Amino acid sequence: MRSDAFDVLDGLNSALDSKGLLTGLTVGVVTFVCGLVYGRFRKRRLLSWAVLYDEPINRTFQDDGPDMWEISSQGQEIDKGSLVVLDIASAGRDDIMESDFALPLSFQFPGREVVHFKVRDSEHVRRKTIEAPDEEMQPPGDRSKIVLPLFSLNRGVGFKLLVLLKETASGPGASNVRGYQVVDGGTVRGGEVQQRKPRDRRYWFRVIATGTVLLLLFGLTGGIYLANRVITPHPDCAIGTLTVLGSTAFAPIANNVANEYENACSGASITISAVGSGSGLDDLRRRPAPGVIAMTDGEEGGNTPGLRVRPVGLVIFAVVANKNLKLFDLSTTRLRDLFRATPSSANGSFVVVGRGSGSGTRRAFEQTVLGARSTDFPASATCPTGSSSTPVACTVNTTMDLLTYIERTPNAIGYAEADALTYFPNVRTLSIDGTSATRSATLDGSYHFVATEYLYTAGQPRGLTANYLAFLTSDPMTARLRDHSYVACSELSGTALAGQCT
């Protein structure tokens, strides 16, 4: 591998030392000048938006027919409805952060009333809209308006806003000729909010200019690409089978890494088995094998003779609840009152859902939130089939079981890995003492509901086991996992959690 890298770099140097020298210098100068010109005229922060679709629903020359739809939202029948699809993107030089907004981004639809809206293509913005109070996003005094919560958006990244509307009495009316409008609002410091106009001659001029620059940059880009391939680590492939079992919270991350490894290494077969931290480690203790890794949320206190253990990072957990409860934040004191063997009726008729006694997630919750190594919460108790009018404490086996139960139980509350809510639209994360379960809050030490993830092997890992562990902790994989509720040990240096991986 190293020899190949030097061969490629030597080839690039030879090209520059011969007739390619002048070309290389020309490309460099052109690139520098173009960068200065582009950077001068491109705004630092720019939120651009465009109307992809804005049309009435069921608006034909006939009152009925086979092409008419029955449109309703949350049981409300929509008459004289219309659908709008907006494309919103960060088109400036810099990323847009929440602190960059002087006024939040908003959209107004004169003559129409917002019935419902959804965000697509950005999980970050979607979660923000789910967690924000409805009255802040849709002001009661102006139903024609949507005010989005503050959000971050990397440059070049965007999302879609889908809006279902109905016409008001002062709207365009029932004719096919209508004058729909969309009006933006909001203020971005050091930039602006701007509607994208239809493509004109200037657009095609920019396309031609960009194409010319790309042709000039082709040679240089090829060299950079080759150099990057040399210095970018790839998994060392090994043939064989590997089983990774244990923590249900870390299993999605382990599976993500396994898929990346198998895509690069056709001779490897990796199976992820989410059976719980305690069960996974017990299985490895009983049957130690070189092709098995056990995942635990937190280091086990019992004897592990013959097993090697290594920390790989932190998993971020969150208190979760059914949205019907209208909860957004709970204090540590109230959580301690709720998660008892017999919850007090003074706190309400919650169905309090925990994990079984062998769960690493439960252990992390008890130690970091409840402040105890163990509690009197039931080790195992069957949950009721529906909501209960009296407080109930019960347990489930896995993260998915817990979220599935809370999804269908209107007064249920529990805890789970913070990244697992994608497929549970009726479940929201709650902040603890006003602090949300975010990566930044974890790194600055203000959010404590986390657990160090430990991986156990039977003796010194070798072959596929060793290569998988190396790939999981490599810099490229660490960077790829930053979108998950996970912080690698290599990212903790210099933070408040620097000692968590010792």
Walk me through this protein's architecture.
The structure is a single chain. 30% of the residues lie in helices and 27% in strands. The chain is an alpha/beta fold. The chain has three domains: 73 residues, no CATH class; 145 residues, Immunoglobulin-like, CATH 2.60.40; 267 residues, D-Maltodextrin-Binding Protein, domain 2, CATH 3.40.190. The strands form four sheets. Strands 11, 12, 13, 14, 15, 16, 17, 18, 19, 20 and 21 form an eleven-stranded mixed β-sheet that branches. A hairpin with a 2-residue loop joins strand 2 and strand 3. This is Substrate-binding domain-containing protein. Keywords: Membrane, Signal, Transmembrane, Transmembrane helix. Pfam families: PBP_like_2.
What is the tally of helical segments? Answer: 13
Helix content: 25-40%
Second CATH tier, the architecture of the largest domain? 3-Layer(aba) Sandwich
Strand residues, percent? 25-35%
User: Which whole number gives the mean pLDDT?
Assistant: 83
State the CATH topology of the largest domain: D-Maltodextrin-Binding Protein, domain 2
Instruction: Characterize the overall form.
Output: globular
Query: How would you classify the helix and strand content by structural class?
Result: alpha/beta
- Domain module tally: 3
Profile the largest sheet. 11 strands, mixed
Highest CATH level, the class of the largest domain? Alpha Beta
- Which spans of ≥5 residues are poorly predicted at pLDDT below 50? 1-22
N/C terminus separation: 32 Å
What's the number of extended β-strand segments? 21
Query: Measured on Cα atoms, how large is the radius of gyration?
Result: 28 Å
